[in-house]
Design brief:
alpha+beta; L,D-transpeptidase catalytic domain-like; globular; disordered N terminus
C-alpha cells in the first residue's frame, strides 16, 4: 500500500473502511486500489469540518475538533490555536499519543516571520489525529468540544478513513 504503516496495520485499516466506518464508506466489494485517493485537504475552522478532495471532486466530509482557543491564526507556541494557511501533510505517526497522527507542515515561512517579528517561538507539532490513546474524558467530550493544543482532531473511525485516503506531501488548506 502507498502508506508507511506496514501490512498488519494496512489490513486492519482496510477492514475498518470496508465495514463502513467514517463519513464515506468504501463501496461494497471494493479493493484498496479502488478507493479514491485525496489530492488535497481543506479545513474550515468555523464549520468544524475537514474535506477531502480529488481535484474538485469531494470525497469526504468529516467533523473535527480544534485547539482550545480555535478562533484566529496561531501566532506562537502554547496559544492553543489551530493554524490558518497553506501547508502540506508532512509525515505519519502510528506511535503517537493519539489514534494515528499525520503531521501538518506548520510553521511555514510566513508563520515563522510573523512570530520572529514579535520575538515569539511559532510552535509546531500540529497534527491531524484521532482521540487520545489514554483518554481522560468520555468519548462524548472529545466529540463535542474543542480540546487539542492546536491540532485537528477527528473520531478514530474518521481518522482511519483520512489516513487511508491521503498520503504525504499533499496540500492542506486551513481556513478561518
Amino acid at each position: 500500500m502507498r502508506d508507511r504503516i506496514g501490512r498488519r496495520w494496512a489490513k486492519y485499516l482496510w477492514a475498518a473502511l470496508a465495514l463502513g466506518v467514517g463519513a464515506a464508506a468504501a463501496p461494497q466489494g471494493a479493493s484498496a486500489e479502488e478507493i479514491a485517493a485525496a489530492t488535497r485537504v481543506v479545513v474550515h475552522k468555523a464549520e468544524h469540518k475537514l474535506y477531502l478532495y480529488d481535484g474538485n471532486r469531494l470525497l469526504g466530509e468529516y467533523k473535527v475538533q480544534l485547539g482550545l482557543s480555535p478562533t484566529g491564526q496561531k501566532e506562537r507556541e502554547h496559544d492553543f490555536r489551530t493554524p490558518e494557511g497553506r501547508y502540506v501533510l508532512a509525515r505519519r505517526n502510528t506511535r503517537s499519543d493519539y489514534f494515528l497522527a499525520i503531521q501538518v507542515s506548520y510553521p511555514n515561512k510566513e508563520d515563522e516571520l510573523r512570530a520572529r517579528k514579535k520575538r515569539w517561538a511559532p510552535g509546531g507539532s500540529i497534527m491531524i489525529h484521532g482521540f487520545p490513546n489514554q483518554p481522560k474524558h468520555p468519548a462524548s467530550y472529545y466529540e463535542s468540544n474543542d480540546w487539542t493544543d492546536g491540532c485537528i482532531a477527528l473520531s478514530n473511525s474518521d481518522m482511519v478513513e483520512v489516513w487511508m485516503r491521503t498520503q504525504d506531501n499533499i496540500p492542506i488548506e486551513i481556513d478561518p
